[in-house]
């Protein structure tokens, strides 16, 4: 009997000690918080929705509308132009410039749709889906994976031989695979596929010209943040199926495009806007043109200056009852 | 001997019951708007996932909020909040530990509104500061709601705000907390 009583007392005492140990209310909450399974989803792999010219894995935040202005000036220097290169002030005063104006909206955290004017009466409509998000915790996913698809319509004057609307369309499909290696370093791999419904030239292999409608390329991009607001970016994309020595259907002459796209940029996050300044081996504003019909040859030193300004607006209010 | 045993037992049991008198919620609501012009809600953020406890006997309170549960109207600002200002990867939580002043157990027993206050220590961005603020307690239909509006000064918590952004922000960020406890009596 005595033993049992002692045992009960011991148990109760222990119980009370346990209760006393819980006196640290905050410590208790912290313990509970630590015990919760944590899922760390990587954010901010890139500052902007574009690395430089190429799309990045980022999309505008949920319920946010983003306005983007991107401007590509003329070539900084062109061989054979001599002193007029100086007068053109590194292409800024050259008279050739392509502007991209775009609006995009993310109805969800994983989906984004957008519309852009890409210069020379060209329009683009796109969708970007986040398929995987880099994360650690219960599930480990090493990379962020996006699917990006654009439809491009050329509305410029001048009839193609068979001028159907269908013939003025082209498409770009990309897989964006990125990993944020550290706070500072992010890298991205981007295989791309461009398809033209109609091209005014054909490839040398097949007189029918089928092989001139598709352009495959693979690109890499990266970002190195050297302060929380400033970063260096680069990108390089290379065509895989050598989109060159094409024969024009009109004149029979050779048509050549450059297979490389190389850019170096600087990201500056001012708090409300994101500015991107860059030097790029293209003067085109559309991704499709940059990847398939790039007329600037970086081996000839054909680089041009450009900048992008991003601003996003919270359209759908997350915080409804603000103080 | 038997009496002593019974006495000990009753004391222990009594103490255990008293200790158990704590209320807890996992849905504490915190919101703030750092904008100078409070009518603009574009910088506003809120978290619905603060955990809070109240120990009735000692009037002790504690609150913990994971900073990543704050969501902003503007997604870019949310990224800045996490990456540039609060460094939430390294310092994931903010907390409060303190006492309710002027709070008695009887307040929870019947419906009414009471003006009390709270004093304690707030830890934000890894910096701990003392805290004192009036608190409103509303008891209604077995729910005790604590309302607390208080200002936070960013530089007191080592939160570095760049000169470009500073003019747009209020010197003191008003924070408002709404903590509801379901009473079980």
UniProtKB/TrEMBL annotation, chain A:
It comes from the Bacteria. Keywords: Signal. Residues 1-21 form the signal peptide. Residues 46-313 form the DUF5777 domain. It holds the Pfam family DUF5777. This is DUF5777 family beta-barrel protein.
Automatic annotation (TrEMBL), chain B:
SUPFAM superfamilies: YceI-like. Pfam families: YceI (PF04264). Keywords: Signal. Residues 53-181 form the Lipid/polyisoprenoid-binding YceI-like domain. InterPro entries: Lipid/polyisoprenoid-bd_YceI, TTHA0802/YceI-like_sf. Residues 1-20 form the signal peptide. Gene3D superfamilies: Lipid/polyisoprenoid-binding, YceI-like. This is YceI family protein. The lineage of its organism: Bacteria, Pseudomonadati, Bacteroidota, Chitinophagia, Chitinophagales.
């Amino acid at each position: 009997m005595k033993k049992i009583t002692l045992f009960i007392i011991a148990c109760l005492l222990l119980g009370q000690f346990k209760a006393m140990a819980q006196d640290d209310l905050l410590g208790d909450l912290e313990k509970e918080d630590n015990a919760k399974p944590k899922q760390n989803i990587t954010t901010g792999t890139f500052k902007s929705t574009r690395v430089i010219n190429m799309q990045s894995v980022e999309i505008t935040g949920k319920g946010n509308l983003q306005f983007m202005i991107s401007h590509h000036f003329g070539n900084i220097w062109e061989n054979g132009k001599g002193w007029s290169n100086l007068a053109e002030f590194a292409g800024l005063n050259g008279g050739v410039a392509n502007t991209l104006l775009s609006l995009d909206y993310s109805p969800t955290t994983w989906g984004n749709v957008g519309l852009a004017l890409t210069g020379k009466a060209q329009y683009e409509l796109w969708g970007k889906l986040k398929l995987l998000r880099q994360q650690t915790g219960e599930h480990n996913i090493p990379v962020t994976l996006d699917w990006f698809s654009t439809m491009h319509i050329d509305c410029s004057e001048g009839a193609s031989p068979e001028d159907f609307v269908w013939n003025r369309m082209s498409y770009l499909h990309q897989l964006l695979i990125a990993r944020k290696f550290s706070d500072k370093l992010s890298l991205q791999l981007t295989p791309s596929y461009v398809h033209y419904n109609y091209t005014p030239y054909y490839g040398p292999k097949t007189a029918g010209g089928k092989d001139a409608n598709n352009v495959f390329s693979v690109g890499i991009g990266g970002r190195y943040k050297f302060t929380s607001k400033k970063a260096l970016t680069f990108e390089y994309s290379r065509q895989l199926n050598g989109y060159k020595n094409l024969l024009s259907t009109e004149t029979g002459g050779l048509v050549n495009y450059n297979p490389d796209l190389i850019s170096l940029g600087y990201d500056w996050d001012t708090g409300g806007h994101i500015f991107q300044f860059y030097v790029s081996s293209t003067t085109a504003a559309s991704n499709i043109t940059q990847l398939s019909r790039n007329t600037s040859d970086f081996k000839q030193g054909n680089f041009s200056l450009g900048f992008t300004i991003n601003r996003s607006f919270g359209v759908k209010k997350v915080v409804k009852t603000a103080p | 001997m038997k009496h002593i045993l019974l006495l000990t037992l009753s004391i222990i049991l009594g103490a255990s019951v008293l200790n158990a008198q704590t209320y807890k919620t996992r849905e504490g609501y915190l919101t703030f708007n750092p904008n100078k012009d409070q009518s603009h809600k574009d910088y506003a953020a809120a978290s619905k996932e603060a955990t809070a406890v109240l120990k009735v006997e000692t009037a002790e309170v504690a609150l913990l909020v994971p900073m990543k549960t704050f969501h902003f109207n503007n997604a870019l600002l949310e990224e800045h909040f996490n990456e540039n200002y609060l460094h939430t990867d390294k310092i994931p939580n903010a907390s409060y530990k303190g006492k309710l002043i002027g709070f008695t157990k009887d307040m929870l027993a019947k419906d009414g509104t009471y003006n009390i206050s709270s004093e304690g220590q707030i830890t934000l961005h890894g910096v701990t500061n003392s805290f004192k603020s009036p608190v409103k307690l509303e008891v209604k239909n077995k729910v005790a709601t604590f309302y607390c509006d208080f200002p936070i000064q960013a530089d007191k918590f080592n939160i570095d705000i760049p000169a470009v952004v500073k003019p747009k922000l209020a010197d003191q960020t008003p924070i408002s907390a709404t903590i509801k406890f379901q009473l079980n009596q």
